[in-house]
Specification:
Blueprint (H helix, E strand, L loop, with lengths): L11 E3 L5 E3 L3 E2 L5 H13 L4 E3 L7 H11 L7 E6 L6 H15 L4 E6 L9 H13 L3 E7 L3 H11 L5 E5 L7 H9 L3 E5 L13 H13 L3 H11 L3 E2 L6 H7 L9 H8 L16
Parallel strand pairs: 3-4, 4-5, 5-6, 6-7, 7-8, 8-9, 9-10
Antiparallel strand pairs: 1-2
């Protein structure tokens, strides 16, 4: 692990509430708690300034430890966490937030998201009202959603008048989410990509995905993973690749200072299948 602190990698994207989110973040989904602190500290020392966790991931404590171990001031690190489906509701969401903040060991959160709409529970609007109150109290700077379809977002806006700043969704060349991104943009919502490599499917040996991405990468002196992640960055998306390897974390960050051509982007567009690696938001909860 490097002992020096490298400069921040990449730009920050403005949010409609006046804040800004670093375009490149570190995802920690399924990173075991014992590894989380070292991984987060190492990524931050290498120039990452954005960490994305969640109540569900059971590693918020490790994220907080990693931030403190990195040597960076707290205000230099953008932290996202999320409320899980079983904590929707005015009181439940506030309790979940308190639990997350206690584990993270921080006083103010940068971004709080509703993890899934869980529409069959029909409680996500109450969760949103709790988050609005937390924002108004100054306990969280920005609030948003994850895995929300346009009709879920519209219901929040219709019933509360408050538009999420971010919608974090499954998004990769198989599933470019064109219509959803257009709907987000119309409301000034930043789209953030989870599973940006389709949980590794884009890099599967023998796949057409890998063949196409590798050929493009060869023209730029880049890896297939870097090409796929650059595809996100070049479209103005926030992207949070996950790896438990600091070598791969460093490789994933080499996304700036070069560009894919229009022909490259057109080739990547041919990989669209519409397939998801996770559930459809209307099917969960």
């Amino acid at each position: 692990m490097t002992d020096s602190l490298l400069p921040a990698i990449g730009p920050a994207i403005p949010l409609h509430d006046g804040a800004a989110i670093p375009q490149l973040g570190l995802g920690v989904y399924k990173v075991p708690e014992p590894q989380t602190a070292e991984l987060v500290a190492g990524a931050l020392r290498r120039g990452y300034r954005h960490v994305d966790t969640a109540q569900l991931y059971a590693n918020e404590r490790g994220v907080g430890e990693g931030i403190r171990a990195s040597g960076l001031p707290r205000e230099d690190v953008f932290v996202t966490t999320k409320v899980w489906n079983d904590a929707h509701g005015l009181d439940e969401t506030r309790r979940a937030f308190d639990d997350s903040m206690s584990l993270l060991g921080i006083e103010t959160l940068d971004l709080y998201l509703i993890h899934w709409p869980a529409p069959r529970q029909n409680r996500f609007v109450d969760a949103w009202r709790a988050m609005i109150a937390l924002r108004d109290e100054g306990r969280v700077r920005s609030i948003g959603v994850s895995n929300f379809e346009p009709h879920h977002v519209q219901r929040l806006v219709d019933e509360t008048g408050v538009v999420p700043v971010v919608n974090q969704v499954e998004l990769h060349p198989h599933l470019p989410q064109t219509a959803l991104r257009r709907a987000n943009a119309a409301l000034g919502i930043v789209t953030e990509s989870w599973s940006p490599l389709a949980r590794g499917q884009m890099l599967a040996e023998g796949s057409r995905d890998l063949e196409v991405l590798s050929a493009i990468g060869a023209r730029h002196g880049r890896s297939a993973a870097q090409v796929a992640l650059r595809w996100h960055v070049q479209q103005g998306l926030v992207v949070i690749p996950k790896s438990t390897s600091l070598r791969r974390v460093e490789e994933n960050a080499a996304l700036f200072g070069w560009e894919l051509t229009a022909d490259d982007m057109a080739e990547i567009a041919t990989l669209e299948t519409g397939e998801r690696t996770g559930r459809h938001p209307d099917d969960l909860g």
